[in-house]
Amino acid sequence: MLQEWVIVAASFAYLGVLFAIAYYGDRRAAAGRSIIANPYIYALSLAVYCTTWTFYGSVGRAASSGVGFLPVYLGPTLMVPLWWYVMRKILRISKAYRITSIADFVASRYGKSQVLGGLVTVIAVLGVIPYISLQLKAISGSFTILRHYPEVVMPGKALAQPFLQDSALYIAMMLAAFTILFGTRHLDATERHEGLVAAIAFESVVKLLAFLVVGAFVTFGVYRGFGDVFRLAERTPDLRALLTVPSTSGSYVTWAFLTLLSMLSIMFLPRQFQITVVENVDEDHLGKAIWLFPLYLLLINVFVLPVAIGGLSLLAGAGVDADTFVLTLPIAQQKEALTLFAFIGGLSAGTGMVIVETIALSTMVCNDLVMPVLLRMKSLRLNAWPDVSGLLLSIRRLAIGAILLLGYAYFRIAGDAYALVAIGLISFAAVAQFAPAILGGIYWRGGTRSGAIAGLSAGFVVWGYTLLLPSFAKSGWLPSRFLTDGLFGLALLRPQELFGLTGMDEIPHSLFWSMLANIGLYVGVSVASRPGVAETSQAALFVDVFERTHAFDRSRFWRGSASVQDLLPLTGRFLGPERAREAFLAYARRRGCSSLDTLPADADLVHFAETQLAGAIGGASARVLVASVVQEEPVGIDEVMDILDEASQVRAYSRELEQKSRELETATAELRAANAQLQELDRMKDEFMSSVTHELRTPLTSIRAFSEILREDPRTNLADRARFLAIIVKETERLTRLINQLLDMAKIESGSAEWHTSELDVQEAIQDSVDATSQLFRDSGVELTVSLEAAPRVRADRDRLVQVIMNLLSNAVKFCPRGGRVEVRLAPAPDGVRVDVQDSGPGISPADHEIIFEKFRQVSDTLTGKPRGTGLGLPISRRIVEHFGGRLWVESEPGHGATFSFVLPLDAGARAAGESPAHAVARKGVGR
Amino acid sequence: MSKRVLIVDDEPSIVLSLEYLLKREGYETAVAPDGEAALEAMAAAPDLVVLDVMLPKLNGFEVCERIRADARWRGTKILMLTARGRDTEVARGLRAGADAYVTKPFSTKDLMAKMNELLGARR
Q1: Domain locations in chain A?
Q2: A891: which strand partners?
Q3: What is the pTM of this model?
């Protein structure tokens, strides 16, 4: 039997544990040993996303629409991995500028606009209040149900209860007290609430465990595992539909819209922004959170369908609300402890959400709504107050109380009209309105304040008209004709079928119209309006946060100075004199100053003070305050544009430079290669000149030596005289031959050689060559055999061809010893004719097979002494054969003679005729 | 006993002219057509080696260095001949240990004067 006092005591005991954890967390943080500085706590605290709406509502939605509960979790699962790009940027910006809330973020981005900050705050408060009231409803409902244990009794209509007997009121008050304890012990909103985060992480564990235990009990205790549950669902006609997405036309649209909606909510719900951004300890924690958090969502959803199916089949007839299955199933099974644990789980989910959400909202209300107004009220003379920090805390505490009371009021008015899920989605749709201004703000420099105000306002108005007002109408607070006939009885203005758009559920319908208005106006007005100085600079700072993190860069937009004597008291009024002094001292040390008096009164100091103030009262108010003491020289829009242009020019320029330097590297590599080639060519030319010199000087040496001998010594005998003269003549001939061949080579290589190409019979050319060299063979005592098969005619230059064959024959005879043999053969080849000149000389070692075709690279042999040629015969012959498209090569083994062969293709003439001088030059580079 | 001169060159005509000139002066001559033959011919301990640079097998610089590396031939004079007379080669020849360096084509009178001078120093 669960006595009422047991429930109340358990609840307070649980809250006591929470508070102890928070207290311990704060103590540890103060001692510098944070317990939340790890990614696991961070990921768990993100699970503040899962409220009673998840804990009780998922089952409720699953009971009515089956797998339709999933999009709300699919969205975050899809979105969180993208955080590595999106949220990291938001985090970096928020840390750099000490952003205190989502309203502060938007206001700061658009030129520290107080109007925008206020607007975001209003939207957030109005949008989220239904969500808070939902928590109150769930907690008080679960409390009522628990009180009737072991009977299953549904809570009555909220309005039916007298005000003072309504447990929801007391719960709201208790939560307000608790939130004030948790959240407003310190002032600086950017100083993280470490204890709070630890408590929230603990709550995430409790609610997950509670849900898993209930789910496991239903699945394995009541039934025999998942298979059993789903077989039951398959057999029951009513339940079978839960397992599939209904095939009606709107259901996929709904899925897509809900997924998108929850993708935005996971970022822009005030409490999510608070936990993800404001309370974040380390940017790198995102890395683990992007897989841990989706895992958490997976776990908390595993048992949703079994519990829903179990509840429907066991409790359906008893008029039990599906939203309560998590609690009523254990009750129906008479499991007392389990029931209490489930209640604690729900309490955990509800309190976590309410505390964080209310803290986030109260910060926004204080910094972006109340403070700007107070600062404007000159009669208050807020600037002259010695310490405003107490006032700030009071404002926040009042705001917390007010927000919870508003939540309670909504619960009294509209709470009964909606299931949990529907209320939650209304809030989701409200905060989704922030998406264009924030996402556009961090990626699009062109977004302006006017655009953001227009977009947000329009989106908010459409949201209110299509979602909030209908929720009032359904509660009877507005006439129901408003829903059925539209405003002023105009059918086009029916709030849930706006402009005749039917066939969509209310949430997709509202999201569609509000986003259309929001994005359209944001982009349209931004493009059309001209941003001011502050906007332009803030836009640049936000969009380029990764490039522009240096403080100097930020303070460049601030031209002006104020002394420490002005700024320290100002900051002290809002942060408390002691904390302000500490902060300024730390800053002075960073700047390398020993005391506050030596701090330079420059723009950087002003910027520092403003950032400190922003942490307490938000960017927009801080801007106003600092401006009141700073001798500010106006920075003109042109100047700001210059600075920005400079920055973007520098970026463009550096991209250009990178491009240029890549091009340069390529060019350098090409040049290096070309240079190496040139050097190689130069070396070859040098080598060539050296060889030519040598070849010319050698015969000249003999000629001069013998000429001088003959001239100076008239007594030389006749025989010697004749011998010497013969040598002179022979060497002269050698010189002439060399010079002719050099010229020939040069002509062929430069492409200026003349070619007289005609169709000819190779047999005849060979015969002519043989005839011309027959005397040489006789003199050398070398035998020559000729074997000519019939071969097709080819097109070539007859004289050149004879030159080649004679060169090969004279080489052969030169290398043959007396009594050697040379054979010349002609045969048809597959696509032309082939000529071989085979000798019985000493042969050529394989290493020299190519070298002998290089200029002046003769290979001598020891048997015959060094044969004397010009060293140009073979290179010239090869070039001639190649000119006709043929090939000249040698096959030989030392000691077994050598065979020089060439083939001429049949279409040789065509090739030769078509060859241009340029072609020949090109070949020169490759050849030798 | 007349001085012995080893002529190392692979160009028959030049060898012929050098032999004629040296014999006319009363020297004894030997001929080697390549670098290896030159080193073999060193066994006869010539007083002067007339050494061409562009030689088959071992080139003139290498032959020169090997002769200089052998203590037996410390007294042998070396006169290098080359048809590639570039400054770098003159320097390299002298570095290799040659006593004189003459480029082709040479004046017979100057060459004989140089050889007489090298040989006369030992007289």
Answers
A1: 4-381, 433-549, 550-635, 651-740, 754-926
A2: A899
A3: 0.60
